[in-house]
Amino acid sequence: EAELLNALVIVERGWAEPKQMIGSWAGAMGHTQWMPEVWLNSGVDYDRDGRVLPFGRPDDALAGTCRYLIKRGNYQRGLAWGAEVRLPAGFNTRLADRSTWRTPEAWRGLGVQPAAGGALPPLGHRARLWLPMAGGPAFLLGQNFFAIRTYNPSFNYTLAIVHLGDRIRGGNDFTLPFPGGERALTLAEVQEVQQRLTALGFDTGGTDGRVGRDTMRAVQAFQRRLSWWSDQKRKAWAGLPGSSRTMTKVRWSTLTPISGPSLPLSPS
User: The domain containing residue 48 runs over which residues?
Assistant: First the structure.
């Protein structure tokens, strides 16, 4: 109801015609797919025509996006989003839990090094370690990665955005490519994984088919019990007793934790 009223305010102000007000299923609209509230509170009249235009010329939308990332994401000018890194043998992967912040110097002290060699880019005073999937690249994530993530809570989405930005600026591809030729678990399969993990005593926070923080932590704990590389993405299905089907080449890479408002599981 609140967003409907916000949308009507946008029309009332002359920022858009009623026929232009077409958005996503959730109500996001315009070039950068914002909710109406964001257009009202973070929009920028970049071309100074007296209006903040969600549609038409992209000037206002792009300028507003910059304000949004600074205002709501605390984007820091001059800092990199993060860096691909390599880990030493025997590294304690429990530190890659997405909640452990350390200074870049502390990570280097643990043997974490830039994958391409050289020095780490400026990341700010702290960073987190992220291991998206087994056999793939690892990343140190700085404040600006999480600034971008305020727009969309998917780690995979955010990585795609920042990497695209690097490539547009002439950067290289990842040193270690992501494994290919695999598929993601279906919602029903995720539910079965949750049920079997729960039966083994691991708390998944429910069996709704959505992968939140509790499910990811349960997978990590299960992997550690089997002495597997604990990256939260390895094929855990085969190790679950009583599995009714054989699942080869199944990955967890699209099942990133969902935070904030309830969102449907999507391959993003």
Answer: 2-71
Per the model's pLDDT, the better-predicted residue between 263 and 179 turns out to be: 179
Q: In the chain, how long is the greatest CA-to-CA distance?
A: 65
- Tell me, yes or no, whether 101 and 121 share the same domain: yes
**In this structure, are residues 191 and 205 in contact, taking their beta carbons and an 8 Å threshold?**
no
pLDDT in tens, 19-73: 999 999 889 999 999 999 999 999 999 999 999 999 999 999 999 999 999 999 9
Q: Is the pLDDT of residue 235 over 70?
A: no
Q: 144 and 219, same structural domain?
A: no
- Count of the separate structural domains present in the chain: 3
Q: Per mean pLDDT, which range of 120-129, 184-193, 252-261 is the poorest?
A: 252-261
Distance CA 244, CA 222 (A): 19
Cβ–Cβ < 8 Å for 77, 96: no
Pull the structure tokens for residue 155. Answer: 């780690």
Query: Which residue reads 């279906």 in tokens?
Result: 186
Helix (H, G, I), strand (E, B) or coil at 248: coil
- Asked if residue 31 and residue 10 are part of one domain, the reply reads yes
Residue with tokens 């995979």: 156
